[in-house]
Amino acid sequence: MAQNPPKREFRAVWIATVDNIDWPSVRGMPADSQRAEFIKILDLHQRAGINAVVVQIRAAADAFYAKSFEPWSFWLTGKQGLPPVPFYDPLEFMIRETHDRGMEFHAWFNLDRATFSKLSVVTSDHISNRKPEWMLQYGGRKLFNLGLPEVRNYVTRVVTNIVRNYDVDGIHFDDYFYPYGIAGQVIRDEATYKAYANGMNLQNWRRENINQLIHQLRDSIQTIKPYVKFGVSPFGVWKNRSQDPEGSETTGGLTSFFDLYADTRKWVRDGWVDYIAPQVYFSTDFQKVPYRLLTDWWVKNGFNRHLYIGQGAFRINRSTPRDRAWNDPNEMSTQLNYNRQFSQIHGSIFFSSKSLTDNLNGVRDTLLTNFYRYPALIPPMPWKDPEPPLPPKELKASSTPEGVELFWTQPDPAPDGDKARYYVVYRFDRKDKIDTEDPTRIVAICVGENTTRFIDRTTSPDNRYIYVVTALDRLHNESAPVQVNVRASEQ
């Protein structure tokens, strides 16, 4: 029997700016073209059922936003430090367009990288020039030395600047903490270790540096805007079972705990992050790290925080001799069907945007016609906000030549001060059981607290309908329902 579609599901996509992976497609394009391209990307995702975007706004100690103490990004304008022409603030623009479509905007930062490659040309006032003593040279890049307390404070200041100045829904970090290992390369942080080791061995000290940074970021975000979500997307394997009985039944050569010094399980267990989005970029047939086994492990280690699976859509049609299943047109459907078996999995984030917009192996069609055919609301986070808004007031319905027109009035703020952020309209036939958990009954999501009118143009003449309207707040808590009965007239 087919599963009922979920009413609550985080459906997101990463929009990568580094190296112009997703947006802008060409560096230095005129501002109007950048905006038009971003709108097109958003519209394609919205039509496919996506309800959140995770946009990379700082890829190498640079900025895709105006209110920054770091220089404008090379990937935006073609020259680091050069503002867009004609001038605009890309982040303000992207947030507004995303919110106008009823989608969440998560600001994605890369925190370890100061330069992208040895060929990078940076401004004279770039942090790598102003603070060379903060930098580690590794793999031809300059990386932040996260063992220095002043570096962790700097990274925190970059993030809190965004939280204060922009209306973001989430702060998001990827999998780069300490660098992925390169043969013959050594992280030269001996002097910092000597100064700050505090009796720890080198590996534990590095992990503790990252722990301190994650904890510091959590506290800072919480203090400034408690509703802003904090999430991390780590490399998928925490530890293998052979390394720790608590690890996953995988035999991968790389782990976030031992190789990247990221104790990701601890951050979830201790409630330091609101969500974790492990990069499960392995197919169901990959022997060392099979998709199902790694997903099973995260289901057991979600610790009542949100778990979104990072889906490797970029691997579609790119099978390797060791991981052949990516050429199977059903691979992504197999993964998404598997996820839906678990209430502990709250959704997916796809890497990356162009994998969906290019419709690799029909992946976007599959979302549009199957998995995301019906709308889904973003799951609430009761540890951040347990209180629903008050219900809409004075709901009325009338039959018009255009269809059934609904009106209501914005509710008063809830006891916690939250107003309605948007409304959901459900429709039932007169004899139906009223079940607002069934997303197939949603006929409209009305975005904006003042959007208190809706015309249903899909009614049948002479039918009797029951409409139910609810209010939702910023963190997607849903009010008690209000309902009205109406008979559709001849149209």
Features:
491 residues, alpha/beta, TIM Barrel, Immunoglobulin-like, 2 domains, eight-stranded parallel β-barrel, four-stranded antiparallel β-sheet, 18 strands
The CATH architecture classification of the largest domain is: Alpha-Beta Barrel
Summed up, the helix count is 13
Gyration radius over CA: 24 Å
Tell me the β content: 15-25%
Envelope shape: globular
Got a strand count? 18
Description:
The chain has 491 residues and is α/β, with parallel strands linked by helices. It folds into 2 domains: 10-371, Alpha-Beta Barrel (TIM Barrel), CATH 3.20.20; 393-487, Sandwich (Immunoglobulin-like), CATH 2.60.40.10. Helices cover 26% and strands 20% of the residues. The chain has helices at 31-47, 74-77, 90-100, 127-130, 149-165, 190-196, 202-224, 256-259, 264-269, 291-300, 331-339, 353-357, 363-371; strands at residues 10-15, 52-58, 104-109, 135-138, 141-144, 170-173, 229-232, 275-276, 279-280, 306-311, 347-350, 393-400, 403-409, 422-429, 442-447, 453-456, 464-472, 482-487. The strands form 4 sheets. Strands 1-2-3-6-7-8-10-11 form an 8-stranded parallel β-barrel, surrounded by 5 helices. Strands 15-14-17-18 form a 4-stranded antiparallel β-sheet, with no helix packed on it. Helix 5 runs parallel beside helix 7. It starts with 9 loop residues before the first strand and ends with a strand. The relative contact order is 0.11. The model has no long low-confidence stretch (mean pLDDT 96).
